[in-house]
Amino acid sequence: xxxxxxxxxxxxxxxxxxxxxxxxxxxxxxxxxxxxxxxxxxxxxxxxxxxxxxxxxxxxxxxxxxxxxxxxxxxxxxxxxxxxxxxxxxxxxxxxxxxxxxxxxxxxxxxxxxxxxxxxxxxxxxxxxxxxxxxxxxxxxxxxxxxxxxxxxxxxxxxxxxxxxxxxxxxxxxxxxxxxxxxxxxxxxxxxxxxxxxxxxxxxxxxxxxxxxxxxxxxxxxxxxxxxxxxxxxxxxxxxxxxxxxxxxxxxxxxxxxxxxxxxxxxxxxxxxxxxxxxxxxxxxxxxxxxxxxxxxxxxxxxxxxxxxxxxxxxxxxxxxxxxxxxxxxxxxxxxxxxxxxxxxxxxxxxxxxxxxxxxxxxxxxxxxxxxxxxxxxxxxxxxxxxxxxxxxxxxxxxxxxxxxxxxxxxxxxxxxxxxxxxxxxxxxxxxxxxxxxxxxxxxxxxxxxxxxxxxxxxxxxxxxxxxxxxxxxxxxxxxxxxxxxxxxxxxxxxxxxxxxxxxxxxxxxxxxxxxxxxxxxxxxxxxxxxxxxxxxxxxxxxxxxxxxxxxxxxxxxxxxxxxxxxxxxxxxxxxxxxxxxxxxxxxxxxxxxxxxxxxxxxxxxxxxxxxxxxxxxxxxxxxxxxxxxxxxxxxxxxxxxxxxxxxxxxxxxxxxxxxxxxxxxxxxxxxxxxxxxxxxxxxxxxxxxxxxxxxxxxxxxxxxxxxxxxxxxxxxxxxxxxxxxxxxxxxx
Length: 733
Description:
The chain is of the alpha+beta class. It has 13 helices and 37 strands.
């Protein structure tokens, strides 16, 4: 009898072990528990150093109720069977198998914030069986020292082959009414200013957080976008996002503000469906980065680590680029993209531009572009972007027009060959611009010809744009159809050895590890909005915690003239940052693609400050996050690739900030010359934004700095290893 009781007890224990499993991070600070609850519902929870990060949250998907397709040879339109009622992939599961593994590697990105990235995690792979439908799914968890990643995997099987996702029901159950840094959930744009509030306040603030955009579609008064930054009441910093978004819809987050539970909310297609799948398949990774130190959120490389290694074998053609461009003058309204004001509409191949009167405001003309090329060559910039060079800008937007651009036909005043040869003679690369106006089918029809035109004329990089509502009509910017288009254009570009900087596209999810020719994205509210009424002064102190978690941004910093009316008397916008803040962005918002966005004449007014933009690197061996608090300040030091030189950037929000930083990251025993570009004491982003000062000092690894940053301000430092001849007359910090 005693033996029977022991056997029964052992059976019960083994059953419990199968129902619940723990997974620890390599350093033991993070603990994830997975279990199958009553009703066969997969559930997980997460803690950090004993503090609750996520309470128990449900996992799974709901499928669309589909009629099985008629077999070939049956009468067209006949149903071959009854509707399938088995739409649940979120309950009635048992654990069929589970495996734990560990992984540890160090890899080198083609470009980025670090020379070497460690990819170290413990993994739990749980196979779930749904007996009533005889279907299996696998949920794979990876726990890193900096957070959790998990995804759904759908093995090929008879009863789960082709299927349509109605909803993904992944939950993120927050531990309380914590602080959130959020933008409204939207299927078409991320170009919003951030709102900081309690979770319980999102519903009441939602409508004031929504501002006008060329294409926007909200879905819920408690819907927000990922990456989402949160701060718990007990001091945890939490980032929720996704990684490796391939052949799937973009994830938003919808908040149950009674229970403080976020649920994934996928972007639908024109029919309302949220994903067409064929097994074997996987979802993107759902990611939760967590720490009690805000700097760790910024330093995390988990998003990259959850993506596949580079699929481009020869990456020698992928280069970082610092550029200027014929752009800001159009954004401010000083100049025009369009060649003429006489045409009410344009038909490609029909409209004769030789018969119309130029408007005199068209910026993309040969003589003017040469001026930009000269400026780039004089100051050591790699490239020049030109927008408005190709025909069609007279009626490009708002007409639901399919055949809007052909991407190869220039305006009469833009001589492609002459500009190509002139740029080459100055050792400057031209950067192509492809605005699609949302006409995606049109872009795909022309893509091969457009990319070949680029290669024939010496363009190695393209800035693509997707302004306005989508064609096919009814599709959204972030749906599966468009996600697949962006990926198609990126992979096609790789075949032509072209680098891509996509604007208005889906926000990045670390895809640049797999396709490092994705050298930039916009996919957030960039500098252009400073000419559309202005952005909040704290915007650039939040972006590193949100949008930049997925990859670098083409933010287009470097504006030195904040009063936009000086460029266009009819535009009374004000850029809400100091000049020193604009310098710091080149470090705090690391990107392999950085624009000096202002007009050459404004840089000529402040050549001493412009020197930092000329000097700052774009590719890095190391990065140290010195200070960070979302919405308040971010201070970063980065070591330039292949050198012993460092650059520091610090930006402050509405309240300003006084930094106290150490230079212990410098090589001991070495002396450096530091050039500090900082706000003047009376600087303020509104009242005195161009007040700055520059000073040179000597420093070493034992030096410390206390530095003031004005409201909306900041500072930038170049730190160059010095020889004795460079140190004369300089004081130690």
